[in-house]
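Extended Data, panel c. Modelled sequence:
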Amino acid sequence: MSNSTIGRGGAYIFIENTSTLILGYVLWFVVAIISTSEVVGISAAVISMTGIFISLVSIGIPGGIQRFLGKYFAEQNLQDAKVFVKVSVFLISVGITICSIIILTFHEWIEKTFVMNFELVLMTILITVSTAISLLFRSIVISTLRTKILPIVMILSASFKIVIAVILILMGMGAFGILIGFALSQVLVIIVLGINIWAILKSSTKKSSMLALKTASKNILSASISNWLPSIVTTIGTQLGIIIVFGAQGASKAGVFFIVFAIFTALIGIISSLFTITYPALSSMTDGRKRLTWRVIKLSLIISLPFSAWLMFYAKNVLDLLNPKYGEGSSTLEVLLLSILPIVVTSGINILVYSYGKYRQVLIIGSVTSIPRIIIYFALVPVYGIWGASVSFTIGSIAGFIVSVLIANKIGMKIFWKQLVFLFIIPHVLAILLFYVNVNYIISFAVIPLITWILLLKVGLITRVDLQDSIGILPNNIAHRTLMIVNRIGTKLNSSY
């Protein structure tokens, strides 16, 4: 499994997540114009609730199954991979059925507590079911490292979601229209990825596998449940903020916080691309896991910190583009962005220990990150509103960062603190300078990353190997020409010493 294979797979996921960011921004930009923040707030509360339900019904299988499928697909062992796919679909179906029955049983309590009608409760079930299955199919595709289809599917489903949501809002369906768009877009993902997975598994030359269904079920549940518990805690810690804001501050404030958090999570989604594709690769490796993990952490920070630094100082400009009302959430977004570095480091260490099968440590990282968030949400949100929610989230991120570093030291993974300091300081100092000399935010968006990467190349934090691996994800003819240009730039920089 070559660096270029992993890199190219990560690149497609990067494109997928970038498309999510752009098209998600388009969706909420349009929704903010044609509807109210109350409509956004109601939609946000339902979407956040479904996020919690999805983590419950999935039983951690989308993450757990990659530990096995990554190895099977790397070995071209499609017959055993087929068994694991069938078992995972069955287990998810059981979780979906149980959760749906529970929601319908307690629908009156849900309606009263969260000020919903029965139609919204039904939409919660539909989104939960469709998203849980689509996430499982996405994980299976990622395990194959054939991720070229993912950005295509993402663009199609996101565009479809925008069209459906806008049409239904204009028809007067409000939040219900937005939720229908979300549900149907996931159904589209299921259909397309399902066909793709079927085509891959169909190519198996052997008719059957010697792997017993009971053994496969036991292996999947063993790996998944260990990740399931921290995943539930993490999801609750992430999604509960919007629900508490909705209950304590009302739909309008929840709408503002949701827009802010959507921008933040989109940025996190982009930088998680390399981690997503790295996990099945780590699971199939026998040596070099710690080195690969640190390189992925470093590259993720190189990509993300310049943009988060820019967004930290120009948050109000970005939010005002949606609607001046959302500009009040700029300080909230600024606080959330302080979580970028801790989250990146924590995510890298988390997938490393998970690839080793150290499930207890995965649970510790997830719990230490999310439990403080949950507790502090209830303390700060009623008093400080959406700003309190962002502070709670960031405190949890820092707590998770601290414990993950301690675990990294325990397993012998070295943290290069000097590199972390430079990676953080350089883009933020540039952002401060450009902001206080009143450089236009659009110009700064291009200047901050460009200068940051040149300086990092100059001081050696971006190495020739990093560049070769990064450029290696491109088509061969483009990669060769790009590498020639980069070599010329590097020669000029070195000649200035």
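Residues 3-462 form one domain. This feature is highlighted in the accompanying rendering.
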